[in-house]
Amino acid sequence: MLPEIKLQGDVDVAALSPLVRGMLLAVAYADGEGGIGLTATGAMNRKFVHWAAVNFLWPDFTAEDLYSMNKVLNESDMPPLWVVRDMTRHLKLLRRKKDVLLPTRRGREFLVNPQGFFDLVATDYLYSYVHATERKEEVQARLRWWRMFLNLLNIKAREGCTPLELVKILYPDFEPLSETEMTLEAWELKSDIQYGVLRRLCWLGLLYEAREGITLFQDGSFHKTPLWPACLQLESDTQSDTGVH
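Above: the chain's sequence. Below: its structure in token form.
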């Protein structure tokens, strides 16, 4: 059984969750600007993409980050925007009418009470959503491991943990290897954890990556945000770090 995501307590989900904040801003923009303009191919237009890059404040995808790699921004240049668009469409918060995306009645309800939608957004995104770089089979295969991943992170992310540290816990045969050897030998396993698990939890707002003092190519340590205990109750809540093997 998948761990239930159920928000309890008074937490600011828009401040803590990049995904919810992006969805709120997109629906609010569509509501206030007469819709989000679409290109001839159906992509969000550059005017909105630039606005989103400036206002979403998405970790690792700020306007500064994005414009350091692109002179102009199209929807395809901003991966978080793909998820925001998919989720607002899936949850019927925005609808297409000719060459614009418009808010639905449900979308306006979401603007008023995002907390009331959080459980649905979080459950669908964490367990079901297929990123553009993934296959549906990968997401489905991961379902059987989510309880283990969340219980492990519930303990290890108290003080912070890196993707390679998680790999060593999950695959003890890698423990004797150096970091360089780990990078070579466990690249695929690390990528699965980093992008299939940690990125989802960060974009949802349950984890954040501390990157102070490290280079672009180094992994930071991942820590829980206040949103984690507000929406998850796990078997490992009372378990100490020494109990993890």
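Strands lie at 36-37, 94-97, 100-103, 207-210, 221-224.
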